[in-house]
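Re: [ENG-882] Designed sequences occasionally contain unexpected residues at chain ends

Forwarding the minimal case from QA. C-alpha cells:
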C-alpha cells in the first residue's frame, strides 16, 4: 500500500474523511487556512533558495503579496487580518533566520520510506520535509506550522510527524543512525516565532512502523467510521457526513416536520429534566439541613413522606476474601473483568502482543445505542 504522511494523519483524525478523499477521490475545496499555509511555506522556500544574490526581506514580502489570494476570504476584515499576520510571520522569521547564517541542505524535500509488515508485504509512506539544516555537530529537521495553537514540549517529544521525518532522513543518511543524539527535530511555530525542538531514539522510530502498520490494517479492513473532532469545522465534507449533514437539512430529501418536532421535543425535555435534577439536588440540601436542625429523619408533606436513609459501602480485602471463597469453589463466581482496567492495561502492551490478545480473547459484545445531547458551539461559548 502507498500512503502519504498527511493521509495517515487524515485517517487518524477521521477515517471517514480519509475514505472520502483517498478512496472515493472526492475533491475537497482548500480551506483558507490551507491556502494561507501553502503561501507562507512557498515564501520561506523562496527566501532560502540558493541564488547569487540572496533574497532580501522586501523580496520575500513581495513574493507573499504577489501570491496572496483574497478570493478565499468572505469577510474583508478577516482577509486584512490574515494578510498582516502573514507579513508579521515572514518579518519575524527573517529576523531569526538570515539565509547567510543557516546551512540548509534540503528545502521542501520529498521522501519515501518502506515498511514491511509481518507477512513480508512492503508499504510505502511518502511525504515532504520542509527544511533540513546542517548544524555544527549534526542535522536539524524543521517543520513549519502556521496554526495558532502551540503544543507542549511533551507533545513535541511524542510528535509522530517528526518521528516519520527522522526515519526518512535516516533512510537518506543511514550513517546518522549511529549518531541519533546529534539529530534535532523541530516544529517552528511561525505565528509565535518559536521553535520547539526534540530528539528521537531508535525505539521511537520503531513505533512509527507499528503505528503505520496498525493504520494500514484498519484501512484494509475497511474501517471508515466518522470521528467528530475539532477540525470538523474546516472539513469540506460536512454536507455528506452523517455526523453533520442534518445541519444542512434544507438539502436533505424527505425531511418531515413530525420527525423534526420529535428532535425539538427530545432536546427540550432533556433540558427540562436536567434543570429539574439540579433543582431537586438543591432542595435535598435544604431538606437535609432542616432534618439536622430539627433532629428528625422523616418529614411529612401533603403528598407523601420524606425519609432519610443511610447506606454504607464496603470493600473487601481481595486476598482474605479469596482465602474464604476458594476452598468453597466460589472464587470464580465473584471475579468480574473490569473493562476499563483491561483497556488501560492493553494500551501499555507492545502493539504486537496487544493485537494477539485482542484477536484471541476479544468477544463481540452486545451493541447498545444511546442518544446523547451535545452542546452546540454557540452554547459552549456562552457557558465559558
Ligand atoms: S465532518 Fe468531521 S466527522 Fe465528518 S468527515 Fe469531516 S472530519 Fe470526519
Amino acid at each position: 500500500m502507498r500512503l502519504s504522511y498527511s493521509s495517515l494523519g487524515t485517517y487518524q483524525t477521521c477515517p471517514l474523511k480519509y475514505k472520502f478523499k483517498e478512496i472515493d477521490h472526492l475533491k475537497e475545496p482548500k480551506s483558507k487556512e490551507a491556502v494561507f499555509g501553502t503561501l507562507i511555506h512557498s515564501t520561506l522556500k523562496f527566501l532560502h533558495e540558493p541564488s547569487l544574490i540572496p533574497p532580501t526581506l522586501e523580496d520575500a514580502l513581495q513574493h507573499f503579496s504577489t501570491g496572496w489570494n483574497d478570493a478565499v476570504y468572505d469577510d474583508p476584515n478577516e482577509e486584512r487580518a490574515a494578510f498582516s499576520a502573514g507579513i508579521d510571520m515572514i518579518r519575524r522569521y527573517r529576523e531569526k533566520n538570515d539565509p547567510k547564517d543557516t546551512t540548509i541542505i534540503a528545502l521542501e524535500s520529498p521522501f519515501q520510506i518502506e515498511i514491511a509488515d509481518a507477512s513480508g508485504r512492503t508499504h510505502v509512506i511518502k511525504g515532504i520535509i520542509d527544511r533540513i539544516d546542517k548544524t555544527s555537530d549534526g542535522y536539524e529537521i524543521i517543520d513549519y506550522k502556521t496554526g495558532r495553537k502551540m503544543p507542549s514540549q511533551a507533545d513535541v517529544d511524542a510528535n509522530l510527524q517528526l518521528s516519520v521525518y527522522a526515519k526518512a532522513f535516516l533512510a537518506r543518511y543511514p550513517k546518522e543512525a549511529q549518531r541519533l543524539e546529534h539529530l534535532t527535530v523541530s516544529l517552528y511555530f511561525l505565528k509565535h516565532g518559536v521553535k520547539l525542538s526534540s530528539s528521537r531514539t531508535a525505539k521511537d522510530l520503531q513505533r512509527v512502523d507499528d503505528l503505520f502498520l496498525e493504520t494500514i490494517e484498519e484501512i484494509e479492513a475497511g474501517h471508515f467510521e466518522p470521528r467528530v473532532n475539532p477540525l470538523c469545522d474546516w472539513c469540506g465534507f460536512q454536507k455528506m457526513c452523517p455526523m453533520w449533514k442534518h445541519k444542512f437539512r434544507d438539502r436533505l430529501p424527505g425531511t418531515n416536520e413530525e420527525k423534526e418536532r420529535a428532535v425539538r421535543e427530545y432536546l427540550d425535555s432533556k433540558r427540562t429534566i436536567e434543570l429539574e435534577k439540579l433543582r431537586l439536588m438543591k432542595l435535598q440540601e435544604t431538606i437535609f439541613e432542616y432534618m439536622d436542625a430539627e433532629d428528625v429523619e422523616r418529614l411529612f408533606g401533603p403528598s407523601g413522606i420524606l425519609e432519610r436513609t443511610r447506606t454504607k459501602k464496603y470493600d473487601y480485602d481481595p486476598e482474605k476474601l479469596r482465602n474464604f471463597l476458594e476452598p468453597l469453589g466460589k472464587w470464580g463466581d465473584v471475579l468480574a473483568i473490569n473493562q476499563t482496567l483491561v483497556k488501560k492495561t492493553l494500551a501499555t502492551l507492545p502493539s504486537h502482543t496487544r493485537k494477539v490478545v485482542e484477536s484471541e480473547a476479544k468477544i463481540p459484545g452486545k451493541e447498545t445505542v444511546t442518544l446523547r445531547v451535545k452542546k452546540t458551539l454557540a452554547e459552549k461559548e456562552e457557558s465559558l
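QA comment: On inspection the terminal residues look reasonable. The longest strand covers residues 104-116. Proposing we downgrade this to a documentation issue.
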